[in-house]
Design a protein that fits this description.
- This protein has one domain: Divalent-metal-dependent TIM barrel enzymes (TIM Barrel), CATH 3.20.20.
- Helix 8 links the parallel strand 7 and strand 8.
- The protein has ten helices and eight strands.
C-alpha cells in the first residue's frame, strides 16, 4: 500500500501549498476535488497538471461526480466535463458517488448510468471509481451491489470500487473485495457515545488510537486479500480543517496507520 492525501484534509490550503505539504509528508499522490476546495472550478486543468508535475506528485482522482447513478438533468454534461478535466490535468480516475438524500434509485437505473459512463471513461482513458455511501439515506450502500451493477453494465474494464473505511463501517459490511478495489479512503471516528447510524461526515477525523471504525483491521484485510493500491486520507471533521498544525497531525496519523498495518 502507498499513502496519498485528499485535499479535503486541508481545504484551506491552495493547491500549491497542498502539493508542498504532500511532498514534505512523503506522499507520492493526491486527490483533487470539485467541491471544497473547488480546484476543478477555479483552476485551468493545464495549470493543475503543471503544478503536480513540478512537485513530482501524481493526481489519483477528481472527487467527485454526484449523483452518478441518476443519469438525468445536468449529470451527463457534468460527467463529460469532469472526464475532460481529468484527462487534461493528468488525473487517473474520477470518483463517482450515488444519490444520498433518502430517495431510492432502482438497481436498473444504476446499471443504466454505468452503461452511459463506460464510453466516456474509455474515450478519456480514466477509471471510474464507484464509492458506495454507507449512510442510511444513501441510494447505494454496499460494494456488493456496486460490483453486480458494474458486471451487468459491462464496465469491469473501466470501473473499480472505492473502499471507504467510514462507509464500510456504516453499511455494516463484512465482505472485502480487494480484487475490485481501485482506491481506499480512510478516516476515523472517536466519539464513544455516538450511534453508528448517527455518524456523519463532520465526525470523520484523522485515524488514531481512539478510532472506532477499525481502520487498521480493514486495511489488513484488504492487504491480505492482495490490495496494494493507494490509501488516501479523507477527513471532513472541522476539528481537522481548523488544526493550527495540520502537517504534524497528518504525520502522526499516517505513522499510526503505517505502524498498525506493518
Amino acid at each position: 500500500m502507498r499513502f496519498a492525501l485528499n485535499h479535503i484534509a486541508t481545504p484551506k490550503l491552495s493547491l500549491a501549498d497542498f502539493l508542498g505539504l504532500a511532498r514534505r509528508l512523503g506522499m507520492p499522490a493526491i486527490e483533487i476535488r470539485n467541491d471544497l476546495p473547488d480546484v476543478v472550478g477555479t483552476m485551468p486543468a493545464g495549470a493543475v497538471r503543471a503544478a503536480a508535475v513540478a512537485s513530482g506528485v501524481d493526481i489519483l482522482s477528481i472527487n467527485a461526480l454526484y449523483p452518478f447513478n441518476v443519469w438525468s438533468g445536468d449529470v451527463p454534461a457534468r460527467a463529460l466535463a469532469l472526464a475532460d478535466y481529468a484527462q487534461a490535468c493528468g488525473a487517473r480516475a474520477l470518483v463517482m458517488c450515488p444519490l444520498n438524500d433518502g430517495t431510492p434509485v432502482p438497481h436498473g437505473d444504476l446499471v443504466a448510468a454505468l452503461r452511459e459512463l463506460v464510453p466516456i471513461l474509455r474515450q478519456h482513458g480514466i477509471t471510474g471509481l464507484v464509492e458506495p455511501l454507507g449512510f442510511p439515506v444513501s441510494s447505494l450502500r454496499t460494494k456488493r451491489e456496486a460490483i453486480e451493477a458494474i458486471r451487468e453494465a459491462g464496465a469491469g474494464d473501466v470501473c473499480k470500487l472505492v473502499h471507504d473505511t467510514f462507509h464500510h463501517h456504516l453499511a455494516g459490511e463484512r465482505e472485502f473485495f480487494p480484487e475490485f478495489t481501485g482506491l481506499v479512503h480512510i478516516s476515523g471516528v472517536r466519539e464513544t457515545d455516538l450511534a453508528v447510524n448517527d455518524m456523519l461526515d463532520a465526525h470523520r477525523a484523522l485515524v488514531d488510537e481512539m478510532d472506532r471504525l477499525n481502520n487498521i483491521g480493514q486495511l489488513r484485510a484488504l492487504a491480505t486479500g492482495g490490495y496494494a493500491g493507494a490509501v488516501s486520507i479523507e477527513p471532513f471533521a472541522p476539528s481537522v480543517h481548523d488544526d493550527p498544525d495540520p502537517e504534524a497531525a497528518l504525520r502522526a496519523s499516517f505513522a499510526h496507520v503505517a505502524q498498525g498495518v506493518a
